[in-house]
Amino acid sequence: MAASVTICDVGPRDGLQNEAETLAAEVRSELVNRLAEAGLRSIEAVSFVSAERVPQMAGAEDVVAGIERRDGVSYSGLVLNEKGYERLAAAGLDAVHFTLGATDSFNGRNANRSVDASVAELERIETDLPVSVSISVSFGCPFEGEVDPGAVIALAERCVAAGAGEIVFADTIGVGVPRQARDLVQRGAALGVPIGVHLHNTRNTGFANAYAALEAGAEVFESSVGGLGGCPFAPRATGNIATEDLVFLLHGEGIETGVELDMLIAVSEWLEGVLGRELPGQVYRAGASVAH
After folding, report:
1. Which residues contact 65 (CB under 8 A, 6 or more apart)?
2. Which position among 8, 141, 159, 231 bears the catalytic label?
3. Which helix (H) or strand (E) holds 89?
4. 132 beta partners
5. pLDDT tens digits for range 192-226
6. 1 pLDDT above the threshold of 90
7. pTM to 2 decimals?
């Protein structure tokens, strides 16, 4: 088990993309700034995708322009293809988050192409920026059901060969159990790059999976402030594991994250006011410690 891990907060992207309301660019920038102030060293700030398909992610360049850059923080953007990468590079972000699905059925709905075509898109991206590749529906697909872990690892190998410097196994619809998290992370270690997980708590197994991944050697955890999130192209997909809940767990286990938990809780409280409703996360409502 690592003494420290990197938490990437994907709230500004994955957290907000499933909201009915499209927040103004300046509000999304402020969310990124507040997360950085709370000590997050990695933040997925925007998604460079079609505004017609995902209107909540419109105006990515305006969001980036409103970010107050902090030293030691990596600001990334999600892309599905070479065109998205070109927008990311022009905006001046620090890292590329490329995503593709483990199945053709999901990838066709999410990226409008086959898995092979997405790998070809990844191969066409020539960059000096760090590239992290997230493999969606690694734990199960809403359209094809169970996903062969061997096929997921084989796809991850292709992604590393195509330029990925980090692999993240994503439980997009929250069907995973600890056995799967442990197995994928352990197999992924042979790829020779940092391995991470992107988990959803749809069926209340997200944090058990996070702990299993931690024990298996995962170095990167993607989570969303307040537990927001979901995928507009996956039926019944609900929120990511909440970043503050994950930080509470990790700190209790003696794992360093660099995050100030009380400040992060304040971000969720602010976001609750912005959205006008209670968020799925639990620690921001219960508090970080027992009252004296």
Report:
1. 29, 91
2. 231
3. helix 82-91
4. 97, 166
5. 999 999 999 999 999 999 999 999 999 999 999 99
6. no
7. 0.96
pLDDT at 291: 46
Look at residue 147 in the predicted model and tell me its pLDDT.
98
Tokens representing 175 are: 């069907």
The residue assigned the tokens 């060293």 is 41
Answer positive or negative: Cα dihedral of 120, 186, 210, 37.
negative
Residue 203 DSSP code: T
pLDDT digits (tens, 9 = 90+) for 115-154: 999 999 999 999 999 999 999 999 999 999 999 999 999 9
8 Å CB contact between 226 and 200? no
Give 42's strand partners: 8, 74
Calpha distance 130→258 (Å, rounded):
21
231 carries an active-site annotation: yes
Task: Measure the CA angle with vertex 273, ends 94 and 237; round to 5°.
Answer: 65
Residue 72 CB neighbour total at 10 angstroms: 8
Residue 290's CB: how many other CB atoms inside 10 A? 6
CA-wise closest residue to 196 among 80, 110, 103, 76: 76
Distance CA 155, CA 160 (A): 9
